[in-house]
Amino acid sequence: MRLAGRAALVAVLLILPFAARAGASADPWDTSVQATSGKTPGIGVRDQGQGISPAKPTKPKYSKCIKLPVAIGTMILGGGYKPFDQGTYTDEQKATAKWWMYCDRADGTGSEGFLTYPPRPDAGALVAQAKQSLVLPTPEVQTSPPRGGTQLVGVPVWFWVTNAKPAATTASVPGLSATLTATPGETHVKIRGGTGRAAVENTSFDCPGAGTPYAPGKANAKGGSDCSHAFDWNATFTIDVTVDWTLTWTATNGQAGTLPLVPRTTTFTLRIEQAQAVTD
Length: 280
Prior knowledge:
mainly beta
């Protein structure tokens, strides 16, 4: 049935003031999500969780169109209507669609109908929202010998971070959720500020994790820690301890990704003393 016949059916049987006609310039494709050939209309590649928009069929020229609420369009067009011979719409698709568009081709070869959909939830926007709510702490650093106490030349100073623990947060909208997970990675220690002969201590090194906490009974030697340094000269040094956080995310539509590393740094000073010999 041509558009005019269906429009008359709408007006006579349902008295619908919202079945508005558009002129020849109407472009119902602007807000529609169409399936590629062989896919179910309205589902397409994007809805299968691959995160890419489906291609549109060749755009026909329409002489006029009517826009119908989905429930009314379903009644008129029938549950088995097959636009573009690409399959039928499921009840679930109809429930989430916004409008039925039904258009006459300008060349008079027939009419076409399809569902239009509201904008799809964007996983990227949810990840950005989750990142804003994720609080990554600056490193809480302990040393052995303890900071503020006596640090001696030649005695390895152990460094370790006590609050480097994984964290996660989730952002959601109806139909889609994205979870962002932060995982602490390497710890970087930078030593700077020594002058004169002590300037040779200005160095940096990487620790594979958060460092090894010191406990009584452990050998107080560099071999007992994977994050330590023995100073050869006495001076006051500035220490920067940085933890790199890896950010990964997953979404309920099957998408996933990794964000750039996020560093967090704590800075403090250590005074390294030269041991004094005691003689009688």
